[in-house]
Model the fold of this input.
Amino acid sequence: MIRLCTVSAIALAAGISVSAAGAATLNVVCSNEQVWCDLMAQNFKIDTGIDVAMVRKSTGEVLAQIRAEAGNPKIDVWWGGTGDPHMIAAAEDLTEASGVDTSQLLGWARNMADMTDGKAIGVFAINYDITLMLAMEDMLRQFTATEMPNMEPERISRNVSDLLDELIDQSVAIVGKPVALMTKEDKVRAIHFLNDTGAFLITKSGDKVCKFFGISKYTLYSYIDEAKN
Done:
């Protein structure tokens, strides 16, 4: 399994596996800015004496890589980037708990660790509710608009695969949270939307939906029945 840790250099040292700690080089993939990746690698070597082989990739690229290498992992630590891909990897059991003590972290960081059984550790996030600001912006735009908005025709999907992807994206948007954070009720709501929009009329759509939401075919059918009731 791949060792996942998204914390500071000191905690990173505490989070690596015994085999990785005894190795000559720690293989790290970093999803942060290059300057931060380099700084982390340098500080880690200073603190531990262990060389770091650092490669920078986006979180999407890393998630795809660890899925492909699930049977023969090449990475010791995945550091940085947005939280959702890390939580998805944890939910798919592609990563291991770091063992880092999170008791002194902020509440949201402890929640992230709890939700992933310690497999994903967050150290920095800024969340600000801009709902009212967006509503005010929209209201002001209506009062100050001098031209008619450019109404572009709705994009039509060229194939059923694209259509299914769009419907799945819409179902996630309706729920308002990533799959990794969805409760059973959230998933039922998303499945209900997909069923109402005819998504399951598309060939093999059930397999794709099950894989996306991390559920079995049996669970999918039970969610459809539950949504109908």
